[in-house]
Design brief:
Layout lengths: L1 H50 L5 E9 L4 E11 L3 E10 L4 E11 L6 E6 L8 H12 L6
Antiparallel strand pairs: 1-2, 2-3, 3-4, 4-5
Amino acid sequence: MKKVLLSIIATLLVVGLFAVYFKTHIFGKSNNLDSQAKCATQAQKTLSDYQKDRLQDFTQQNHYNKNLNKCFVLISYVYIDNISNGNGEVLFDAYENNELASYTYTDISGKHDPSSLCLIGKNNGFVSCQKYKNFVNQRMEEDNKL
């Protein structure tokens, strides 16, 4: 009787461990793919909203960070006009449609005095461009924790 009971407990333990593994590895990957797909859709909407009434060329890169449960979209652009030319980036939390950080590089025609401005948040003011890059990388690279 003792052997049968131990055998049943061992079997239940193995089945339980298999169920936990299956849930975390198989369903976890499926949920992550769903989250990435939702992020890509939301990132495209964020880009469309941002592009309205702007003439620059835009590209976007998105990343779903599962540790933060956030979708980030980095919109890059280039502009050229009669006065200046340059490029820039804007980082959004795509789900909240919230601008988190921005970078602008401008070269005023004929001045050859390019300048870069880096901003994190609306109230934090300008920061070093290295701090801006670190801020963006923490959100856009795979599952960094803040």
